[in-house]
Amino acid sequence: MKRFALLLPLLLAACGTTSAPQLNAQPSIAGVDYVASFEATVLRDLQNLGLTSDLSAQAVASKSYLNVLKLTDSSARAYVKTTYPAATACTVNWGDGKTESVLTPTPADVSTEKKDHSYTSSGTFTITLTCGTDVKTAAFTAVIPVPASRNLFDSLTFQYRSGYSNTFYQYLGRTVTTDLGLRLETSDNNHYLVENNASGFKVFPDGHKAIAGYLTAGPMRIRTENGNTFNVASISAGNWESAEPTTLTAYGVSGNVIGTTTFSNSAANQQPVATNTVTWNNVSYISIAGTNQYKHFFVDDLGFTIN
């Protein structure tokens, strides 16, 4: 009688009443030993549920099984097994808008079907295995690290200093400036290295430098030096003189718009650099365009990672 009582929760889980058990104490990156231990637990679950033999030969009610392993802070692996006939569609929904099909019934020579998935944003997601009206769920919390500001351009050195609009500047006379794996491009050669002047008002945080570009000939662009995509969490920037809005637009590799953000602060009006937070992933390039073509825009820093 006691043995039957112990098996009852597992049998209910297989029939769709409750979700399959999950391991809790999970590391940020699952090591080989941890994965092996987790899979041993999955095998014990399947044995207790009677799901380790030839499933197609079982003259029992159809069952399904779901368990989820945390591979990294942002990726999960679903272990799935079903005895449903092929006519019953089974799917795994990852809770972030992504869904994929599952083989059913699970082939006899496969212990479980494994599905891996990576998340692109932080949050708690409900992973759902659905076979007809049979639904199993498991929760997964994804944590995407927020890139810290990188002190972009701060390692560049001045050869001379001139004063303008609450800043010191040096004319660089080039169309591309690179630093930390990023390149800032303009259509003309009006690049300036900019920092605070000696007055009491500070445009930038202490020690920061920026690159200013002229928007006369067209938008400025930011992309990676190696051509890879990059992820952006924050942008510190502003207008050098005009306070008319300047819009930054992030584009994906297929030309799709990922997001936009706008800066209206002006150093000439004694407004310091502004920091806008964004969630832009897999960016191909950022385009910077203003409504007034006779203006300069400066980029002080980005919180970014290169893929």
From TrEMBL:
Which keywords belong to this entry? Answer: Signal
Task: Extract the PROSITE patterns matched here.
Answer: PKD, PROKAR_LIPOPROTEIN
* Signal sequence bounds: 1-25
Q: What is this protein called?
A: PKD domain-containing protein
Q: Which residues form the PKD domain?
A: 93-146
The membrane-spanning stretches of this chain are none
Q: Does the keyword Kinase apply?
A: no
